């Protein structure tokens, strides 16, 4: 509660910043995408992680400014990195509150035009824990996003409300298997196998989150995932350090 007054001005004061975590091709280990993750650089408390301030932002109606800022940063960086020849996609997390806002798609479209960025360079990540009622409410907007070429990723799959049939009803281009499923997985993991088979049937890309060891990479690669994300290939980094990583691994 004490953070709320500070958070209400955090974007305006330039305290919200974007960090980026790489996603690599499961076979080539080349960086093909990054996920943009919000951080709050508080003037007295230091760096605050999103698990602390994003729920506050959603609860007190402050998420729109943070979400818009992260979309702006995602588009700006994607365009700059494309100009440098990195050619990586940038994934940006979007909350249920943002998805319920009709102006959100217009905001994304304006930023894409401003940066002369192809829509396919941007991926919108929605959480799999989104309540079923909210999924029904935003499906039309997700379809509109798909229609202009944006990628739609279902994040943290395996932890929330969605069943496989509900996932199949979403206009997604990608599904990200939650780290809790990946880190406990084996080469005969039925859950990951089912997700991969469903994704193949629908033409979806599969990303395994939370890959921290070579053994975990071996398992998910054998099970057929397309991309991996986790500490094995890099922690979330500020923009300058991300550029160094892209120079080394793309």
From TrEMBL:
The family database entries (Gene3D superfamilies) matched by this protein are listed as: EAL domain
Q: Which residues form the signal peptide?
A: none
Q: Name one GO molecular function term.
A: cyclic-guanylate-specific phosphodiesterase activity
SMART domains to which the protein is assigned, alphabetical: EAL (SM00052)
The EAL domain, residue ranges: 1-250
Record's InterPro entries?
A: Cyclic-di-GMP_PDE-like (IPR050706), EAL_dom (IPR001633), EAL_sf (IPR035919)
Pfam families, A to Z: EAL
* PANTHER family (alphabetical): CYCLIC DI-GMP PHOSPHODIESTERASE PDEF, SIGNALING PROTEIN YKOW
**Protein's name according to its UniProt entry:** EAL domain-containing protein (Putative c-di-GMP-specific phosphodiesterase class I)
